[in-house]
Fold each of these.
Amino acid sequence: WEMAKRVRRRYRGGRILDLACGHGLLAHIMLILDDSSKEAIAVDKKIPLNAGKLSSSLIETWPRLKNRIIYKQVRVEDINVFPDDIVVSAHACGALTDLIMDKAIESHARVAVLPCCHDLKKSCPGGLQGWMDKTLAIDVERAIRLRSNGYKIVTQKIPESITPKNRLLMGEYLAPD
């Protein structure tokens, strides 16, 4: 809920792409908080069997979600991202966060990630690990990557009482003048 609230304060409209979605809860909450998006697509290579049951329960409570959540059981690499999309991902493991960011960057879509575990072998700390914790260095490197690709970035921390993996990175592409 907290991540969706913070993302929606900044980004409205467009299609929601919840990548590495698990049960797709973030996709649902993004639509609950703001009706300016017509649909949300929840993407994972393996959608949990009870995701439909969770979705039905949420739709029963918020009927306006009906026919607006689409589950796609495909690899993140195989999804098409468009410039008006909002790409979100909560707790994508390791290098999956980097792949999700790459998908957003390729099409200049807005992006918000809340990284989870950090793969110290596959993710790049950018040589910063001498100054800071390796996992923080990886997230700093991710922020730098967004900036170097023309994005205005926003970094925030979600309260640790909600999740100890709490570094939220958001970016919006700024078209050159």
Amino acid sequence: MKEIILLKNGELALKGLNRHTFENQLIKNMKFRLHDLGKIRYVSSQSTIAVEPIDENVDLDEAFRRIQKIFGIAGISRCAAVEKDMDVIIPAACEYLRDDLMFAKTFKVNAKRSDKKFPLNSPAICMTLGEKILDAFPHLTVDVHNPELIVNVEVRDNYAFIHGNQIKGAGGMPVGTAG
């Protein structure tokens, strides 16, 4: 399991054919703000940018703080990138979000499955993971309308991303796009 930062682009998705120009400028702005933290890979896919540390000494806490101030980002999450297998996703979610799950009273699971070859559909992922979380944390109850904690699972082409509540980003358009 490796920890990364997952960014949601927000308004950039509205720009159609020139979206890549805005995404490239956003990545350029992030590289400028994070260059002194070590080697970082930026992977853009489906209105999401994954910020993956290549060096083990990259300070993800500091990267997360700096990214929150960059315009063009709607939402930010620290997440675990794991193998796309429910036998890996379930224990990874319980381990990665353990502190949040221990202190929350209510939760829900939100799943997105862009890899249509994954054997379970999104509702089945939610039910399976939710059941296992309830087994591991019996004090929790499910509240789909107003949960304290949302356990997010995104099954993508290469990984499954697991994260808790998303933090709001600075929003707007990236600096340098005159948008």
Amino acid sequence: MASRQAVRQPKLWRWMEGQFARMAALGDVKAQSFYGHILYFRGQGFGARQEGARLLRLAAEAGDAKAAYQMGVISLSEEASHGPDGREAVRWWARAADAGHPLAAVRLEQLYRAGGHGLAADAKQADFYKAMSP
């Protein structure tokens, strides 16, 4: 409720954004995940997407399931610095699935079923992740 109200009030939103930026810089994993997501998907200005990806990576490496899922999405995007990488997406989505993210197993099953982006199709792995899916 408070965040919805903040979006309608630019001054309050800027203050909240500053607080999340400060907390992320201090190493707060949840702040890195949240602020990284905001910067990557809604950020404006030079370097917002790169900083968002950096914060998401830090949060994912610290065990945040949502950030790991988003890193998998970023790994398959055309905007990835090295192009779409199926192996990198598998690495992140496997971490997210192990941490309980509900969509990660679904995406892994789809990726293994179809293959692509440098990853060979693997029905056995696809079936494994399908069994994990909600």
Amino acid sequence: MRFRSAFAATVLLSVHNVQLHAADLAWTYTTDLASKGEVEFEQWVTARWEKEHGAYNVIDFREEFEYGVADNFQIALYLNHHYVYANSDVPAEDPAHPGKRLAGVYETGGENVHAGHNPVTPFDGYHFESVSLEAIYRLLSPDKHPLGLAVYFEPTIGDEETELEWKLILQKNWFGDRLAWALNFNYELEFEETDGGYERDAVFEWFTGISCRLAHNWSAGLEFWNRHEFADTTVHEYSAYFIGPTIHYERGRWSATLGFLHQLPIGQAFSHETKEFAAHDGYIFGDEQEQYYVRLRAGIDF
């Protein structure tokens, strides 16, 4: 299976004075939270694909159950699972020269391919990977202050990896909330189980997005993502950049958000391993990133 997608949205309608919804953006979080006592279910489906060579296609699924504890505090439970198909997608290592790639030779790999899989054969499988808990506390509302501010914490526990993630969320509204901008700074610690214990890595990334609310419950926006990974939390491996449009629709209790991101050919590889096995014509591939991402979020309020 290979995903091919293009994303376009054209809207020629007058603007309505409607407050930004928390899911108007597909990747960037806002400070708009569930009201006290409000319950929401949201289904996330994220497709990501395209490496330097071969096939690597993943569909990530997340079921989110969200609850407003107070007007400024919400919690959520996530179920995380995925489907992956991979075939000859990562460069093979030269057995005669460890740490060097074998020119023109590729094997099946990637972060979602199970350990122990025969790298010369395709991999096709489904995996329920983890459960996450989320807590967001809003310190400042963009409706009452010049800038909205919220803090976020999410622990994730899985059979192969444990993660701790923190976010700082900023939001600014203009024109009676019809135009909104959000900025997220994320830091994540990853503890991956290995034969000798745990391997500890870190991620620093930031997201930013702008969304304009339009007539007939529609909004459209643009998002940008920059991701940095650190082996053993200190060795800077790479910096990758992504950009793409987002469109959002809501009616009554229902809402849906669709976003597309494309990796820009301006990535930077810093570690030897990343330069040798992941960097390609300005992109970061290997077992790190993909070229295209599409995310659908569909929710209902109770």
